[in-house]
Amino acid sequence: MPKTLYATLKALPGRRETLRGLLTALAKDVRAEPGCERFKVYTLASDPDLFHVEETYRDDAAFAAHMATEHGKVFNQTITPLVEGGGSEVVFLDAVI
Length: 97
Prior knowledge:
Protein name: ABM domain-containing protein
Organism: Gluconobacter kondonii
Pfam family, one: ABM
Radius of gyration: 13 Å
Strand content: 25-35%
Largest sheet: 4 strands, antiparallel
Oligomer: single chain
InterPro entries: ABM_dom, AI-2_Isomerase_LsrG, Dimeric_a/b-barrel
Number of helices: 3
Structural class: alpha+beta
Domain ABM: 3-92
């Protein structure tokens, strides 16, 4: 069963473009992971400092492999001083239809 989630990140004042660049680089790496089915980054239309990332992985094992990647660990460490709360807020989803 696919593992689907979304993550939100709110850039601190003046950090939007830095965060955008980091997310763009991360997207390239994550999309190359064998178990990644979707990794899409958005900003909120009414608040471009708020980023919304939609992710789907083939299954729990693919998600676990994603969490163990070096590029993911580096990204999470790097964004600490760039985003509100020091990291992303993650919500896991279950498909209805």
